[in-house]
Amino acid sequence: MDSIHLTPLWHRGMYCIAIRSRLNEQANQLVRNFPNRMYSKSNGCWYVRYTPATLDLLHQTLSAVSIVKMPVSFSENEQQTLAPVKSKMALPIGYRECLVRMRYSDSTRITYETQMQKFLEFIYPTAIDGITKSIIDEYMIYLVEKKRVSVSTQNTAINAIKFYLERVHKGERTLYYVDRPIKDRLLPSVLSEEEIQKLLWATCNIKHRCIMFLLYSAGLRISELLNLKWQDIDEYRMLIYIRGGKGRKDRITLLSKLALDYVKHYMNLYEPRVWLFESPVADSIPLEV
User: Fold this and answer.
1) Dist. CA 21–CA 2, nearest whole Å
2) CA angle at residue 254 from 271 to 218, to 5 degrees?
3) At a CB cut-off of 8 Å and minimum separation 6, what does 152 contact?
4) How do beta strands 14-20 and 45-49 pair?
5) Which of 226, 249, 251, 255 is nearest to 241 (CA)?
6) Do residues 121 and 96 make contact, with C-beta atoms less than 8 angstroms apart?
7) Burial of 268 (0-12, 13-18, 19+ CB in 10 A)
8) I need a surface site. Which of 39, 176, 193, 244 has the fewest CB within 10 A?
9) 3 state SS of 49
């Protein structure tokens, strides 16, 4: 039987518990149903925010179906030592300010800043003002052959560099033009009606089932769902109002009768005050995934 390792993890400014190993079917189901669990693509593991009570509960839950090991002890005093050392590569002057001034979203701003710092680390000790197209091309080859990044990550790196050269440095287009990778054109995986039924009825939790029905029936993005307020549900017109969606655009989508029934049942049970799906930590902030 494969053992499950619970190890300390510093992620997104939080001291967390990383769940590492190849989970069997039972363990995987328990982790997916564990409160406030999240998945990190960069670390390749599930994780939850650390508290002594959470660690005990997680250990007891997983011990029922697998051997659980903690090779490294958890201590709140060690949080600062686990915090990653910030890159010494400072962003170019005006880079962050320009992102804020142009009202880029927080997630896009953080992504651009991270990609720009990685590029600066690659070209060090060359100054940012001394970069050429050949250096950018060399960095693209490095990302593809050495780092093996996805097409979307490569495009993001291009956009971060392009933003500096075009918006901050005000360079000529011949300087920052680079070839973009061709995106993969894959056929979508279409679930059958029976599979959709199993997916929607997989959970007995009313809140989770309400989330599933809204996501599927209204075609919502996760971010759009989490930013819903209860006033955005129009039961008379059977509409859902999306405020500030992708690209900071508002839109309207349909509200199904079955989804509305679950929303009403959920609201009677949970009585949300501001957000339709509120964080268990505080009513004033939306649920996080």
Assistant:
1) 8
2) 75
3) none
4) antiparallel
5) 251
6) no
7) exposed
8) 193
9) strand
Residue 26: pLDDT over 90: no
Cα angle 111, 115, 116 (rounded to 5 degrees) comes to 115
User: What is each CA distance from 63 to 55, 114, 248, in whole angstroms?
Assistant: 12, 38, 45
What's the pLDDT band for 86 if we cut at 50, 70, 90? very low
Bridge partners (DSSP) listed for residue 40: 45
CB 175 within 8 Å of CB 166: no
The model carries a pTM of: 0.52
The rounded radius of gyration (Å) of the Cα atoms in the chain is 23
Distance separating alpha carbons of residues 203 and 192, to the nearest angstrom: 19
Q: Using an 8 Å Cβ cutoff, are 239 and 252 in contact?
A: yes
Pairing of the two strands 4-11 and 68-69 = parallel
Task: Indicate the pairing of strand 45-49 with strand 233-234.
Answer: unpaired
CA angle 144, 145, 150 (to 5 degrees): 30
DSSP annotation of 179: P
Q: Which residue, among 243, 222, 239, has the nearest Cα to 211 in the 3D structure?
A: 222
d(CA 108, CA 170) in angstroms, rounded, equals: 21
Band of the pLDDT at 106, cuts 50, 70, 90? confident
